[in-house]
Amino acid sequence: MSQNISPNYYKELIDLQDVEGVEAQFKSLLAVPIESISDLEKWLEDEKDLLFIIDEAMTGHQVDFYRNTEDADIKSTYLHDQQAIQPLLMKYVAKLMINAVILLILLN
Q1: Of 15, 42, 67, 82, which shows the fewest CB atoms inside 10 Å?
Q2: For the whole model, what pTM was predicted?
């Protein structure tokens, strides 16, 4: 029994199919010059916002897939997230954390 399920229970504020665009957002964040505590606070807020919108989309895709495993498009989207976006997240989250720690040390 197949249901017509609307994915409107989450906001997709980023196009995760555009891997280069997602990576560009991470690179842009890492390139922000930080010279003060207020710059760091703004940078941390931007980092949190970027990670939140990626997580929101990925979680929504995962729930879509769990709710309807027979839909080829939903499965393709979920697998794309796992194979392309998750490794990118692992790479850049580590860099963002290292950057934040170094900045905190330097600015204190």
Answers
A1: 15
A2: 0.86
